Amino acid sequence: MAFPVVNGSSCFTVFGATRDLINQAINFYTNVLGLSLHSETDNGVYLSNQDNILTVKLVLSKKGLTEDQIQAKKASFLEQLNIHDWRTKESSLVIKSSNLNQLIGTLQAFNQPIQINPNELFPNEVYTLDPLGTVVGFNSGGNPMTVVPPVEKMSSMVADSVMMSASNSHFSKQDEGVKTRRNIAVMTSGGDAPGMNANVRAVVRAAIFRGCKAFAIMEGYEGLVRGGPEYIKEMTWHSVRGFLSEGGTNIGTARCKDFRERAGRLKGCKHLIEAGIDALIVCGGDGSLTGADLFRAEWPSLIKELRDTNQITAEQHETYKHLNICGTVGSIDNDMATTDATIGAYSSLDRICKAIDYIDATANSHSRAFVVEVMGRHCGWLALMAGIATSADYILIPEKPSSSRGWQDQMCSIVGKHRAEGKRKTIVIVAEGAITSDLEHISANQVKDVLVERLGLDTRVTTLGHVQRGGTAVAYDRIIATMQGVEAVKAVLEVTPDTPSPLIAIDENKIVRKPLVDAVKITKSVAAAIESKDFEKAMSLRDSEFLEHLANFMAMNSANHNEPTLPKEKRKRIAIINIGAPAGGMNSAVYSFATYCMSRGHTPYAIHNGFAGLSRHESVRSMDWLEVEGWNSVGGSEIGTNRQTPEETDIGMIAHYFEKYQFDGLVIVGGFEGFVSLDQLEKARAMYPAFRIPMVLIPATISNNVPGTEYSLGADTCLNSLMAYCDVVKQSAAATRDRTFVIEVQGGNSGYIATYASLISGAQASYVPEEGIALDQLEMDIKSLKESFAVDRGLAKSGKLILKSTNASKVLTTQVLADIMKEESNGEFDTKTAIPGHVQQGGLPSPIDRTRAARFAIKAVQFVEESSDVLYDYKYAMDFPDDKKLTATAAVLGIKSSKMRFKSIRQLYDFETEIGKRMPKKIHWAKTRDVADQLVGRSRITRAPA
Ligand SMILES: Nc1ncnc2c1ncn2[C@@H]1O[C@H](COP(=O)(O)OP(=O)(O)OP(=O)(O)O)[C@@H](O)[C@H]1O
Ligand SMILES: O=P(O)(O)OC[C@H]1O[C@](O)(CO)[C@@H](O)[C@@H]1O
Ligand SMILES: [Mg+2]
To answer: What is the CATH number of domain 6-152?
Structure first.
């Protein structure tokens, strides 16, 4: 029999207990909880309740099995059940009951120590421990409860259950002297950064979800130094409501002088211990995390001093002897080593790009030059990325200084050539920390003077200042802040005194833990290298992505005025085409492709209006620098895009034109139709030699459903416009009180957009095509909505959203869903629908899509260069062998986990794609769905495999 699975567990198994305990447990489950015997086998005893919601499997320890083997068995059982989420190691049970009071009465009659209302999110819960130490929860609404699991060893679990009392709200224990982490504090420090609030929200809710208490240290290290309940405050589930969409940091931040001194840190140490904090999560920049690392290193001597001076007891000394600390990097500067991005950096980049997009218009009108100063005290990441995203003429950054005359000559030469080509405007971006190779500061005004004096340009300076730190976080920052907050809680609960303090980082698309101490060390050595004028070393210590972006910027910027970098015989004729629906970043990809090709000496061709345009109108044009200039910042598709594949138009004519223009390579920018087109062209190579050229797909679709990649261009732009839409709708719902909006989300058969939009807008539920809308799930969601409206009564900011992918259900349309919810709410809340439609394609491309497009496009051109030789001998051969090496020259460029890579279309199409569904076979965002649900307290029913 397949049981519905509540949050991934339909069945709970306990291994390794003695027969006596098993008998006690059976007694408890049958007599106290009213479960009945379901079956008994050699392997164990199965119990179930009437609703078949839950099975409890009690297994006697096998003779001769060691504790390790038992644990391994348990782990493998959990694995079989496909339980990969937070509950993997948490043996809490949820038992559905329609009459909570009756249950409470029964428990009390049996003298069971019960905890009522342990969780403010679900006030109707109670929980208790069974004789095996398993936490058993009851919930009138069928929602899962949130408690810390019983600890690893069976014997001590039982001891714990005896010790448990109704006043003890946490299931934790002393384990060989190491206090189980249960009071988790979070603080924000250094300059505020958009996304810090999302990080705090995630830490607080993930901590509460896991049965811990959550605290906020107000005002950064200042709050730690001052201490007391005013600065170290317990946070509730509701205290972080609305945080996702708010800029800055609601728990305050500071630059604290005292913490730089040992005396300040000593106070901080004392205050943490006084407040009973077991773990500290610091969200801040390089400075804050340097401070955190120092605090960690000094901790043993700090607590020793506190004990020796009788400021803490010997017992406190013993309990808090290890500082459990974790960093999540929050800073707009993106200057922390070992992570690709810091929380806030892309929001700041968004503000900068918007400002430069505005400046562009006025600069163009007057044919002026603008010098734009951006933040980044010691780091040029913002200036560099803004330079790429807005195709600025020149950038000045601290990492790559030239001599005090060098930068002036170079800048004037480039700007002069751009002007000579006919460009009407000039944008120079100066990082706040820009320096010469003699470490002299270069100011925006100095840059302006040079442009005026040497080129006679009418020049203005715009210093963006703190505008760059303001406003709400972009989608990416909300995503990483949330996922990193959750990971940070997991990390502090998992670390042991022997594991190094972690920093939560991101590598491409993967959230990872890195040793804090290493990150701080490398970051410090970058600063030291700059100080000692060893710029090469400083660059080599920067992340490889930074170096790649810088090389790309320089190459694209030299497109029309430097001697191409390739010798004549290596130069090629490469075509680019857009296929499918418009996606943010398509134009940026075409711009980057064209300018990079020019810098290398290739001739870039644009095929206009897709394959239909080519086969019907020979729509091929070679690309001109001035024509593409500015396309980086434009939405839609300048060269035109449509969904027709080569076979749907005329593949023979397409081959004819490929032959006529002697293309040496093809870059397709598109979504699933682009993917299918690439497959068709690759298969047609046997028939048409014109296609025996390297061909590469740059995934670009808001649905993000292209096999072979976890990211497609346009998805970020889409998420940002959807997020802005959801924020507005949520605000309206909150103001109206007691209203739920059902929002219909695009994405074809992919639930990616709906899932991520729900994560970043704090939607109560999302329905996606991969899961459909099951009636029992809907019933549960409506119940949960009712519960949460009841809890929220009188609180502000309680607007509720439900996101529904258009294809989640054919029958339960958005309107029907809203109507059912309204009907079932018994007048307790009202519902409305909202359909953003094609607004989701976004207006201007987001900076992420612009800069990723540049990376993708340049990698694609490099792929054409590198793969050409493989095909050389076969270009006009009678037979075109079916050889892996040859098929690999038609590939999808994608991001997979922490790597960017090319994967053969043949492999992807034949083995990794559900063609009928237009989807990859595996989705990579299941964990994100779980987190989105868990942070709003939603239980999701998934079906166990038959
Ligand atoms: N070396 C250090 N030792 C102890 N504490 C430090 C150290 N460096 C920084 N801190 C603490 O961290 C706080 C914030 O550091 P800083 O002002 O450098 O900002 P940040 O965290 O780098 O963020 P951002 O650069 O994004 O504004 C400092 O005010 C100080 O309290
Ligand atoms: O807001 P403050 O304290 O003046 O700090 C400005 C500095 O903070 C940062 O914005 C980082 O948060 C730097 O780029 C900038 O130099
Ligand atoms: Mg800093």
So the answer is: 3.10.180.10
Q: How far is the CA of 193 from the centre of ligand 2 (A)?
A: 10
Q: Is 377 helix (H, G, I), strand (E, B) or coil?
A: coil
Give the Å distance between the CA of 189 and the centre of ligand 1. Answer: 7
The residue whose CB lies within 8 Å of the most ligand 1 atoms, and thus the one to mutate among 196, 224, 259, is 259
CATH 3.10.350.10 for domain 723-843+929-934: no
Q: In the predicted model, is pLDDT for residue 723 greater than 70? A: yes
- Which long-range CB contacts under 8 A does 233-242 form with residues at least 24 apart? 235/204, 236/120, 236/204, 236/208, 237/120, 237/121, 237/204, 237/205, 237/208, 237/937, 238/120, 238/795, 239/204, 240/197, 240/200, 240/201, 240/204, 240/205, 241/795, 241/797, 241/798, 242/797
* Distance in Å, CA 249 to ligand 1 centroid: 16
Question: What average pLDDT does range 921-928 have in this prediction?
Answer: 91
| Residue 532 identity | S
> Which CATH class, in words, describes the domain spanning 568-713+845-915?
alpha beta
Mean per-residue pLDDT, 550-561: 91
Q: pLDDT grade, residue 713 (50/70/90)?
A: very high
The question of whether 458 is a catalytic residue gets the answer no
In the chain, which segments carry CATH 3.40.50.460?
Answer: 345-468, 723-843+929-934
For 500-538, write each residue's pLDDT tens digit.
999 999 998 899 999 999 999 999 998 899 889 998 888
Centre of ligand 2 to C-alpha 290, Å, is 16
**Integer angstrom CA distances of residue 60 from 17, 56, 307, 643:** 6, 13, 47, 60
Report the atom number in ligand 2 closest to the C-alpha of 192: 12
Convert the pLDDT of each residue in 848-857 to its tens digit. Answer: 999 999 999 9
Per the DSSP assignment, residues forming a β-bridge with 605 are 575, 622
Is the beta carbon of 377 within 6 A of some atom in ligand 2? yes
Measured by CA distance, the residue closest to atom 8 of ligand 2 is 191
Q: How much is the mean pLDDT over the chain? A: 86
CATH for 345-468 (3.30.2010.30, 3.40.50.20, 3.20.20.70, 3.40.50.460): 3.40.50.460
Distance in Å, CA 207 to ligand 3 centroid: 27
Per-residue pLDDT averaged across 683-687, rounded? Answer: 94
How many whole angstroms separate alpha carbon 192 and alpha carbon 162? 46
Least confident piece of the model among 140-149, 206-215, 296-305, 688-697: 140-149
CA distance 292 to 614: 59
Q: Of all atoms in ligand 1, which is nearest to the CA of residue 332?
A: 26
Give the ipTM.
0.96
CB of 556 closer than 8 Å to CB of 406:
no
Pick the more confident residue, 104 or 772: 772
For ligand 1, atom 15, which residue shows the shortest CA distance?
287
Q: What is residue 127's predicted lDDT score, i.e. its pLDDT?
A: 65
Asked whether 330 lines ligand 2 (CB < 6 A), one says no
Nearest to 290, CA basis, from 267, 263, 259, 321: 259
Q: Which residues line ligand 1 (CB under 6 A)?
A: 189-191, 221, 255-256, 259-260, 284-288, 290-291, 294, 331, 333
Determine the topology of domain 183-341+473-523 in CATH: Rossmann fold (3.40.50)
User: Ligand 2, from 432, 464, 467: best to mutate by most atoms within 8 Å of Cβ?
Assistant: 432
Band (pLDDT 50/70/90 cuts) for residue 476 is very high
- Residue located nearest, by CA, to atom 16 of ligand 2: 377
Counted residue by residue, the chain has a size of: 946
Ligand 3 ion: nearby residues, β-carbon < 5 Å = 285-287
Q: What is the pLDDT of residue 402?
A: 82
375 pocket-lining for ligand 2 (C-beta < 6 Å): yes
On the question of pLDDT at 617 being above 90, the answer is: yes
